[in-house]
Amino acid sequence: MTMGGTGRWGQRIRERVAEGDMGELTTELLKIAVANRNHWGGGWDEVLDALRPLSAEQRTRLSGALVERYHSAGRKSAAQINVLTLVCVVSRGLPEDPLAAERSLYLDALGRQYDCGYGLRMDVLAEAELAAGRRLTPAVVAAFRRAGVEGYRPAYVVELMKKITEPVLNVGEEWAERAMRNGSGPEWQALLTHLTTATASKPSARWDKRARALIEDLGADRVRAAAVSWLALVGRPRTFPLDARFSSPDVNDAYDPCNANALRGLAWLVSLLPPHPDTARGLGTLVEASLKKVFGLGPRSPKVANAGVFALSRLGGESALAELARLAARVTYKSTAKLLDGALRARATVLGLSREEIEELAVPAYGLTEVGRARHTLGEITALLDIQGSRAVLGWRNASGKAVKSVPAAVRRDHAEELKELKAAVKDIDKMLSAQTERLDRQFLGRRTWAYDTWRERCLDHPLVGTLARRLLWTVDGAPVGFANGELSTLTDDPVTSGREVTLWHPVGREPAEVVAWRDWLERHEITQPFKQAHREIYLLTDAERATGTYSNRFAAHVVRQHQFNSLAAVRGWRNKLRLCVDDEAPPATRELPRWGLRAEYWITGDGEYGTDTTESGTYLRLRTDQVRFYPLDAPGNSAHCWGGEYSMRPRDGEDPVEPLPLTAIPPLVLSEVLRDVDLFVGVSSIGNDPAWQDGGPGGRFQEYWTSYGFGDLTETAQTRRALLDRLIPRLAIADCCTLEGRFLQVKGERHTYRIHLGSGNILMSPNDQYLCIVAKSAAGGPRAGYLPFEGDGMLAVILSKAMLLARDTEIDDPAILSQL
C-alpha cells in the first residue's frame, strides 16, 4: 500500500467506524500506519479527522488496542510514530494518558531536529502534551517555529504556534539564550518581543517609537550594555547541535531563521541609542558574522547584515563612520557593499566631500598618539601599544620600567575598564589595518591622487594609516619617494618636504634599473611593504596576445577549485556566480573598472559530472578556465551555460552587440593589474599546487594537468619569487645548501637532494626525481627566513620553510615525511 492510495483511507476508516468493529478498525489503522512512510498528504489527515468524532467508549477501546500493538510496530520507526500519533488522537480528553513517556521521548528527539517535518504530524504529539498540562521544551518549540517559517506553512503548525509564546526567542544560539537570561523581567520580555517584529527591510516610524519607549523604560545605558554583550555572541557555535545528516547546507552553521528577525530588530534598536564605540563595534561584528559564508548556502543572512549597515548609517559618531569605512573596504557581497557605498556617499554629501575623502577621514587613531604607537599610564604601570607590521601588540612596563610578559595584577584589579578598552583597541586596529591595506592596494586602479598636505595628514602622518603608507613608495610631483629614517626622501636619500600632487608609485612604465634600485633601497632600510609594490609582477602584452588581438589565453586551460576561486575573486573586487550542474547560464567572472570605463572578464565553466564532481547541492567543485577579455563598462554582458559551451552576448532591446576591445587599447597598468589578479586566482586555487592531487584526482583524469602545472613553466608571480630568492638565499643560514636551478630551488640535504618548484611548492628528490609530499601545514612549523621585503606571498613562505626543513633532513621526525625519505 502506498500513499497514492490514501485518498481511500478516510472512507475505509469511516466504514469500519460505522460497522462498530474496533478490532477490524485497529487492524486497518495499523496497516495505514505501516504504509504511511513520512509522505505528507491529505489522506493521513483524513484518517486522523475520521477518528476524532468517535465516542469516548469507542476511543477508550481503540486506544487500548493501539497501545498493545505500539511496541510491535518497530522501535523508532515511522510506523511506531504513526501509531503513537493515532493513540494521541483517540485518547484526547480521556482520563488516561497512554504512552505519555514514549511521547515525551519522541518530542525530545524532535528538539534535536531542524524542524518537525510535515509527514509525521508531530503537532498531534505536541497538542497531546499541552492537553496533559505539560509545557513543550524550548528546543521542541524551536523546531516547530522553524517549520513555521518555511515557504509552505501547514495550518496546524500555525495554530499550534499561536498557543505557544514562550520562550520569546529560539534556544540553540548563544546570543539568544543570553538575551533571555538577561531579560527576565516584563520590560525586558517586552523588548525582546518587539525585536521579533522586525520583519521589514527598514523600521517604520511606529516601530522606532515603540523601541524608544522600551529603551526609556529600561534606561539607555542598561540596554546598550546588554545589547552589546548579545551582539558579541552572534555567530558562535550552537549551544547544542542539530541533526544535520540530511541537511544541505549544514543548519548548524546558519542562523536560526526565527531569530534572524530579532537580530535585525536588535541592530535597529541599538542605532536609536546615543553613539558609543562599543555599539559601533558590535554592529560591525554583526555585519561580518552575517556575511560569513556557509557551505551550500552562501552568506548566513544578508538581511541581518544589511540591517547592521543601516543601523551604522543612522547611528552617527566617529566610531560608526569608522566601521562603515572598514566594512566598505572588506565586504564583497553585492547588496551589502552597495548599501555601504550609499551610506558613505550620503555622509560625504552632507560634509561636502568625495566618496574617497570620507573613507580616508573615517579612519580613527584608536588612541595612537604618534604613528603606530601609544603610551598609557595606569597607576604605576605603563601600557605600550605598538603596531608591528600588520598587527597591534600590547606590551607592559612595571614601575621601574622593566618589561613584563603578562598583564600586571594591579592593572587587572584597579584598571579593568581601561584594560578592556586597550584590548578592544588592539582588535579594532588589527581589523582596520587589514581593511586599509586592501584599500591602498586598490588605489592603483582607483587612480587616486592627493594634494601633498592632504596626503601627509591622511596617509603618511596618520597614526594608523601611516604605518602602512610609510612602507610604500609614492610619487611627489612625478618623482618617486619613500620614507626611511624618519623622513620622506628620494632614492638617493635626499629629503622631500613639500610638493603639489601625490600618487601611489607603480612599476609599470618604470625603467628596470629604477625598479631594481628601489628594491635595493627597501632592503637597505629593511622595509617590509604591506603588499607587493616594488616587487609587484608586471604583465606586459605578449606576442601571442598581439596575435589573438582581443583576448588573452595566458591563463586558459587551468583546473581550479571553484569555491576557493570564488572567494579570491570576491576579495579582489570581482563579481562571480557559483556554477551549478543545472540547466542554467552564468556570466563570466567580472571586474568593473569605472575609473577607466572598462570591464574585465575571465571566462570560466564548470567541470565534471553531477555527483562525482559536485557537492550534494549540485555545485561544481572545480572550474576550467578560458580567455580574459575587456569591454566598455556599459557593454551588454556575456553569458554561457554553466556546464560549458561558448560565451555569447545577449543585448537588451534596441542594443547592438559590442565587440571586445583590442588588448593594445588597454592601458598597460590596467592590463597588468587584471592579469595579476587572474594569475593569483590560478596560482592559489589550481589543483596543480595541491599535493593531494598527485594521483590525478577522480579517475586519474587530471594527472597530466597536475604534473604540467606542478612542475611546469613559471608564471610572472613565480618569476618574481625566483628573482627575490636570488637575493635572499645568500643571507640565509642554509645558503651553502641552496642553489636556483631554472624553475626550482635546489636544496642539498644529507639524505637526498631536493628540488622545490617555485610556482607550486611541489618537491622532487633524488634519485629519479621521486615526488616528496610535504603539506604546507607541516612545513609552516619550520624556522622563519627572517627579513622579507613584502607581506602576503604565502607560497614564498612555504618554499622557504620547506627548504629549511629539508636542508636538515636528518633532523626530521615527522613520520609522514620520514616514510618517504
Provide the descriptors you would attach to this structure in a database record.
821 residues; alpha+beta; five-stranded antiparallel sheet; globular; disordered N terminus
Short description:
This protein is of the alpha+beta class and 821 residues long. Helix content is 45%, strand content 13%.
What does this entry look like structurally?
There is one protein chain. With 821 residues, the protein is α+β, with helices and mostly antiparallel strands. It folds into six domains: 3-162, no CATH class; 174-361; 373-438, no CATH class; 448-524, no CATH class; 543-685, no CATH class; 711-818. 45% of the residues lie in helices and 13% in strands.
User: Over all CA atoms, what is the radius of gyration?
Assistant: 33 Å
DSSP helix fraction: 40-55%
Please identify the structural class as seen in this structure: alpha+beta
Poorly predicted runs:
1-6, 778-783
Give the termini distance in whole angstroms: 63 Å
For the record, the count of structural domains works out to: 6
Strand order of the largest sheet: 7-11-8-9-10
- Average pLDDT rating: 87
Q: Please provide the count of β strands.
A: 24
